[in-house]
Structure to design on (180 residues):
């Protein structure tokens, strides 16, 4: 895929094995400005994760993002159809001006709860956001990558690692086209 060749930053862990996330020196509350407004999206999603699946599902969606909290946050609405059923997702992104880290929270019409945030920052128009999580009973690290080098056509992607970041499986890509 388009941004597979981008390197994921090396992960650091504390003495207890917990993931340490630090902001890039250029991180700012304006990092997501490229995403304001409406986008049309082509999604490519692995049918199954972390099982050597090679079957991709492709579907269209739309998304609209607007800023909140005097510019230190933003919200977007993601609209799609899965298996003939309407689906709605929502992302809340908050910038901490002290740590210079973004926290990204997701919820959708299936769960109605905010997921544990992925946390990170941008450098050179590419953002990496990480979290430790549980997937099907196993501890994983996930990364969200925002590639905004082409700000009219940004790419969001997601990967998981079951081995503390030694290897990654990319499992979802969103190829966006700004419609406003």
């Amino acid at each position: 895929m388009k941004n597979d060749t981008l390197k994921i930053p090396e992960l650091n862990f504390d003495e207890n094995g917990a993931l340490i996330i630090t902001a890039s020196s250029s991180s700012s509350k304006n990092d997501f400005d490229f995403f304001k407004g409406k986008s049309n999206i082509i999604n490519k999603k692995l049918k199954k994760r972390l099982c050597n699946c090679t079957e991709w599902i492709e579907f269209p969606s739309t998304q609209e993002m607007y800023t909140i909290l005097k510019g230190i946050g933003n919200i977007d609405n993601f609209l799609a159809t899965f298996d003939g059923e309407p689906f709605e997702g929502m992302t809340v992104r908050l910038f901490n001006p002290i740590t210079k880290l973004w926290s990204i929270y997701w919820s959708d019409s299936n769960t109605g709860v905010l997921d544990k945030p992925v946390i990170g920052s941008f450098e050179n128009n590419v953002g990496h956001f990480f979290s430790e999580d549980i997937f099907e009973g196993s501890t994983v690290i996930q990364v969200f990558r925002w590639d905004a080098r082409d700000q009219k056509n940004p790419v969001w992607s997601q990967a998981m690692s079951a081995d503390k970041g030694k290897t990654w499986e990319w499992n979802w890509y969103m190829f966006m086209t700004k419609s406003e």
